[in-house]
Amino acid sequence: MEPQESAIQYSQWNNSQDEVSMNVLTPESSGCERVYKKLCTRKLGIAMKVVGGIVLFWVIFVIGYITGYYIHKCK
Question: TM segments (predicted)?
Fold first, then answer.
């Protein structure tokens, strides 16, 4: 008999702590889960987080600039 391939990984860190992780691939994965895995993991995920951080910085900067302009506007 040939051994069957499995997606179960077992690792033992020390005598008191064991870790078992299972990767289950199901065709019923939701659309949100597929989008998350595509956009938020690996190199593309890192790039998305960097771009999101830059965009968030500029949005906050512009809101602060506009708010400061109207607060300190001379009458």
Answer: 46-71
User: pLDDT at position 55, please?
Assistant: 98
**Is the pLDDT score of 63 beyond 70?**
yes
Integer-rounded Cα radius of gyration of the chain:
24
Which token pair is 16? Answer: 């008191």
Q: How far apart are CA 52 and CA 48, in angstroms?
A: 6
Structural contact between residues 22 and 6, judged by C-beta atoms closer than 8 angstroms: no
- The type of residue at 11 is S
Both structure tokens of 47: 């790039």
Please give the angle made by the CA atoms of 21, 25 and 28, to the nearest 5 degrees: 135
- Domain residue limits, the chain: 29-75
The answer to whether the beta carbons of residues 35 and 48 sit under 8 Å apart is no
Locate tokens 């906050």: which residue?
60
